[in-house]
Amino acid sequence: MPTILFHSPQSDKAWPVELQKALSDHRIATDIDAVDPADVVAAVVWNPPHGRLRGFPNLRLIQVLGAGVDRLLREDSLPDGVPIARLVDPGLTQRMSEYVLMHCLALHRRMPEIQRAHDERQWRYLHPRPPAESSVGILGLGVLGLAAAQALISIGFNVVGWSRSRKSGLAFASFAGESELEEFKRRADILVLLLPLTPLTADFVDARFLATVKHDAALINVGRGALVVEDDLIAALDSGRLRHAVLDVFRTEPLPTEHRFWRHPAITVTPHNSSATNPATAVAQVVDNLRRALAGQRPSNLVDRTIGY
């Protein structure tokens, strides 16, 4: 029987069960070491073991269980010519929008400062202001960035966006390319990183970038840890250029217990839980992509390996 490999040990255990229900004419295998390589016709994965996917000669699709594919594309031994599809999951998108909205509100209402006053048993009154008095700048205007922008606009935040290529038809001001990055930064009180990690965006937020953000701005990183140069971020926080950073993604995960991010008073660490794929909302898309690929049709949300997303 043709086999579809499911390899994502940390994902919801319902995934292989639901896939098997929907694809009864295939075997869903979760043990990468217990399959006949010739039987594997597709792989549904998140961070597969290095080099293993090249060992399946009849592979027709690699379906990634997430929106980001940078970890997979770092593989120097992916099979040539096999299409790669990323996941555009409405449930994942909703959870990401919730996370961004939650932390933008917390930063706007100065909750980190209130928490520090609480820890010091100080009554520090900070007058609440309407969201319209804060501008949130979103870097990366893909599905997740646009959904987050809509959630922020819906409660009154001013939103500006930046992307590498020009976007049209948006309900908010947007900027594009290196030439417009400085103007974008001048407008943003809170910066939200939702860029894909590619060779062009690695170390994007460095000392040069941070030198011209608004004084007392805040940063939320829900993209990838390698978008940010850690030493430069710490320096910007220590100097007061940035007032706070909310970090959900890191160069090493889980974040090592000795890492200085844990101890820095101006950093909020969350355990990469801003969002996650949900079988209830995403399995239909994965099944449709698998059926398309196995029938020789074009799957949805294909990745362009040359640009990295």
Question: What do these coordinates show?
Answer:
With 309 residues, this protein is an alpha/beta fold. It has helices at 14-22, 70-73, 90-108, 111-119, 143-154, 181-187, 207-210, 230-239, 279-294; strands at 3-7, 27-29, 40-45, 62-64, 84-85, 135-139, 158-163, 173-176, 190-193, 217-221, 242-247, 267-269. The protein has a seven-stranded parallel beta sheet, with helices on both faces. Strands 2-1-3-4-5 form a five-stranded parallel beta sheet, with helices on one face. Helix 1 (14-22) crosses helix 9 (279-294) and helix 3 (90-108) crosses helix 5 (143-154). The longest helix is centred in the first third of the chain and has 19 residues, at 90-108. The radius of gyration is 21 Å and the shape is elongated. It starts with a strand and ends in a 15-residue tail after the last helix.
Chart the SSEs and their pairings.
Elements: E1 3-7, H1 14-22, E2 27-29, E3 40-45, E4 62-64, H2 70-73, E5 84-85, H3 90-108, H4 111-119, E6 135-139, H5 143-154, E7 158-163, E8 173-176, H6 181-187, E9 190-193, H7 207-210, E10 217-221, H8 230-239, E11 242-247, E12 267-269, H9 279-294
- Global structural class: alpha/beta
* Unreliable residue stretches: none
Question: How many separate domains make up the residues?
Answer: 2
Q: What is the average of the pLDDT values?
A: 96
Enumerate how many helices there are, as a single number. Answer: 9
Widest sheet: strand order?
8-7-6-9-10-11-12
The CATH architecture of the largest domain is 3-Layer(aba) Sandwich
Concise account of the structure shown:
The protein is α/β, with parallel strands linked by helices and 309 residues long. The chain is built from nine helices and twelve strands.
